[in-house]
Amino acid sequence: MRLLVVEDEHKIANSIKKGLEQETYSVDVSYDGSDGYDLASTEEYDAIVLDLMLPGMNGLEICQKLREQKIHTPILMLTAKSELEDKISGLNNGADDYLTKPFAFEELLARIRALLRRPSATLQTILKFQDLTLDTTNFDVIRNKTKIVLSKKEFSLLEYLMRNPGKVLTKENLANHVWDYDSDILPNTIEQYVGYLRNKIDKPFPNKKPLINTVRGFGYKLGTDN
Ligand code: CA
User: InterPro entries attached here (predicted)?
Assistant: First the structure.
């Protein structure tokens, strides 16, 4: 899981980053509102920790602009105690939760975990790609009317591929989004799991075009070029 922390107080920002990295999240930090907004609107994050008072652009504006652009990344807003009213407008402007400073790191971590578990408004529960269907509520995977049994990890990998159809995903993308809490990924782990998936998704259907494709030198892609 990849997180963005936008906070102008370097000390707080850096200690949040350090703590989250110890929890095996990958974390980007921005100390400025406009820069944070640029990152949040161009990079893919699984959640954003956003301070309210920031130079450049404040947290409320960032929140509002991201939601206007249909970017539904979960946002945890950080506010000072005196900014109570801003908290409420923060939630109205699309923040998912807020935390009052000063806070214990454990509290921040608990809130982030809760946000990451919560499916965002745009997340569909049933994903379809050509003749493949994946149901994220009951973990059913069906291709060409045949039910396919996947392990938990294979399922997460396929879910991530199906949420990004036609997009080239690097091994790093997959590692960052699928292998969240496992810290012991070997260089061939991703290849190995893509191999397991192919054996279940593509191999039993030799008359069909393979769905999982290697883009040499870059990574993997769900779907073909034509
Ligand atoms: Ca601040």
Answer: CheY-like_superfamily, OmpR/PhoB-type_DNA-bd, Sig_transdc_resp-reg_C-effctor, Sig_transdc_resp-reg_receiver, WalR-like, WH-like_DNA-bd_sf
pLDDT at 182 over 50: no
Instruction: Please write the tens of the pLDDT for every residue from 32-48.
Output: 999 999 999 988 888 99
In the prediction, which pLDDT does 38 show? 96
Which residue is associated with the tokens 């591929």?
Answer: 161
pTM for the structure as a whole: 0.56
Structure tokens at 117: 């578990």
7 C-alpha vs ligand 1 centroid, how far in Å? 6
Which of helix, strand or coil describes residue 118? coil
Please report, for residues 71, 72, 114, 123, 134, the alpha-carbon distance to residue 120 in angstroms, rounded to integers and kept in the order given: 10, 6, 12, 5, 17
Pick the CATH number of 2-117 from 3.30.565.10, 3.40.309.10, 2.30.130.40, 3.40.50.2300: 3.40.50.2300
Q: How far is the CA of 47 from the centre of ligand 1 (A)?
A: 19
Distance 53 CA to ligand 1 centre (A): 4
Distance from the alpha carbon of residue 87 to the mean position of ligand 1, in angstroms: 14
Determine the distance separating the centroid of ligand 1 and the alpha carbon of 50, expressed in angstroms: 9
What residues does each domain of the chain span? 2-117, 126-222
